[in-house]
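Help needed: design a sequence for this.
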């Protein structure tokens, strides 16, 4: 089955370049392109893509605003922010809005292709640019998280461990012999207890608190 992708960027050269490359991949179907956030939201609602690759600085509706809207309307669609900016005022709001990945436009095309495929199945472990990951770790470090992990049940902790290893809900369900619906329910509880918005933030928080290291030993 092909991964369906919507490309969003207000620079036609970038848009055409991404489309040309991705259409050479037999397991990718570029189902649409958009030049601004409003058009992206409209097309996404019509096509329901697996993955949306989105710029930040765009007219009418920027990528962060569009991401926030789309995550509410199409929670199953994954969003990768692909931009030239590593500024904190873009990075933190984008992740808070629900972006599943954040990368720079100078990423190697093959790496972008692999990231799209990984994010499509819920594997966002390597979807963040290293500088973005460091910014997020610094940001979450401002809060006292020492008691948050103590709130997790044994099953929730087990599922979070799998998340930190970059596994998708489907893979976690298979490993733990439970349904994907059960995994999603536990993930919702984990997000609430850790005060994060998505699995990427949960994994980063675990790493920052050395929880990931602790449960490996």
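Sure. Designed sequence:
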């Amino acid at each position: 089955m092909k991964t369906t992708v919507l490309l969003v960027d207000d620079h036609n050269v970038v848009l055409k370049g991404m489309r040309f490359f991705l259409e050479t991949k037999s397991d990718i179907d570029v189902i649409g392109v958009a030049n601004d956030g409003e058009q992206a939201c409209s097309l996404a609602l019509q096509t329901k893509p697996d993955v949306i690759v989105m710029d930040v600085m765009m007219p009418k509706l920027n990528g962060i605003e569009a991401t926030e809207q789309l995550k509410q309307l199409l929670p199953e669609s994954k969003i990768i922010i692909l931009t030239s900016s590593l500024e904190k005022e873009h990075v933190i709001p984008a992740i808070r809005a629900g972006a599943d990945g954040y990368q720079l436009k100078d990423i190697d095309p093959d790496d972008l292709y692999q990231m799209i495929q990984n994010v499509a199945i819920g594997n966002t472990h390597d979807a963040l640019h290293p500088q973005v990951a460091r910014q997020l770790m610094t940001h979450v470090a401002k809060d006292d998280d020492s008691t948050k992990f103590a709130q997790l049940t044994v099953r929730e902790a087990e599922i979070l461990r799998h998340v930190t290893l970059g596994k998708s809900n489907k893979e976690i369900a298979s490993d733990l012999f439970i349904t994907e619906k059960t995994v999603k329910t536990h993930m919702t509880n984990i997000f609430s207890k850790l005060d994060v918005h998505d699995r990427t933030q949960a994994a980063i928080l675990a790493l920052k608190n050395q929880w990931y290291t602790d449960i490996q030993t």
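The longest helix spans residues 180-194.
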